[in-house]
Specification:
It is a single chain. By secondary structure, the protein is mostly beta strands. The protein has 5 helices and 17 strands. The protein has a 6-stranded antiparallel barrel. Strand 1 and strand 2 form a beta hairpin. The longest helix is centred in the last third of the chain and has 13 residues. The N terminus is likely disordered. Bound molecules: arginine. Arginine binds next to strand 15.
Length: 300
């Protein structure tokens, strides 16, 4: 496990001690999860809601005290005109609830993948740098990162889950309580069959869901995690970032996720840019960094 340090500000490229665990859940409840229902409070402590002017736009995952990983398309599509008042809400279960344990943070930088392709959704990954650190609590925890594709194979993942506040039907409304569902990883060959995605799925993407449909992410879930549990290491890892799909939950059209293990190098690079970015404009351009001025965070 390597922790790369750049200057005085380390970013963990594998996992922070204690990442991927659910300290807010009592063990007996841990594997209550099956298909598509409300999550227990504290079940997915790395899941955040990314909001603009207090409206939810996408999900995301905490990977560090100041870094949230999400999807590039959340910030490029025409529905998002400005990144003014961009905020991350951590420790949230019911969107309407203003329960204790919720932490609001404004966003200082949005780092889009420089090769994100809006028509194919290739490289649909982005990083948000928060203005202030998050406190790790029972309800706010980081998710573990996979170091590379080799580790992806070695980790011997058991079950994988999708989570989000996205709608329950295609083009529907957002839900109030965080939803969770178990999904199966579907290999690219199956997913690329002619009556499935017909060759669209490349090595930077992974399919997850069911041949027969029925369980899937949908609009509003984008950017959130596809998280898989490693039985050996007893923790959850970020396996994919919710990206796109045809409709929602249709047969032979599972959700397509950005394959997290392919982006560890990019995460490192993005981090260097964020630290030294102002000095090296060519790099900044390369990574499409948007700087936003910090506004008041309620440091609860
Ligand atoms: N692009 C969608 C969003 O912006 C996520 C869609 C996922 N679609 C799917 N069929 N799994 O929220």
């Amino acid at each position: 496990m390597v922790n790369v340090k750049y200057g005085s500000c380390p970013i963990s490229t594998t996992f922070l001690p204690g990442c991927g665990q659910q300290p807010g859940l009592d063990p007996p409840n841990r594997f209550r999860i099956l298909g598509g229902h409300s999550a227990l409070e504290g079940a997915w402590p790395w899941q955040v809601s990314i909001q603009r002017r207090s409206g939810h736009i996408c999900g995301g995952s905490i990977i560090d005290r100041v870094w949230v990983i999400t999807a590039s398309h959340c910030f490029k599509s025409s529905r998002v005109y400005s990144n003014y008042k961009l905020q991350v809400v951590a420790g949230l279960n019911a969107r309407s609830g203003h329960g204790k344990g919720i932490q609001f943070r404004s966003v200082k930088q949005v780092i889009l993948h420089e090769k994100f392709n809006e028509s194919t959704y290739n490289n649909d990954v982005a990083l948000l740098k928060l203005c202030h650190q998050l406190y790790f609590t029972k309800h706010v925890q980081p998710l573990c990162l996979i170091e590379n594709e080799m580790q992806e194979e070695q980790l011997n993942f058991g079950s994988c889950y999708i989570t989000g506040w996205g709608s329950l039907v295609s083009k529907g409304l957002l839900v109030n309580t965080l939803q969770e569902a178990e999904v199966l990883l579907i290999d690219a060959r199956t997913c690329n069959q002619r009556d499935w995605y017909n060759g669209h799925v490349n090595d930077n993407m992974i399919c997850a869901g069911f041949d027969e449909g029925g369980v899937d992410t949908c609009q509003g879930d984008s950017g959130g995690p596809l998280q898989c549990y490693s039985k050996d290491l007893e923790r959850f890892y970020l396996y994919g970032v919710t990206s796109h799909g045809k409709g929602c939950a249709l047969p032979k059209k599972p959700g397509i996720y950005t394959r997290a293990s392919r982006y560890t190098g990019w995460l490192r690079k993005a981090h260097v840019v964020s630290v030294s970015g102002a000095l090296d404009l060519s790099l900044v351009k390369l990574l499409s960094v948007l700087f936003i001025s910090c506004w008041m965070d309620l440091l609860l």
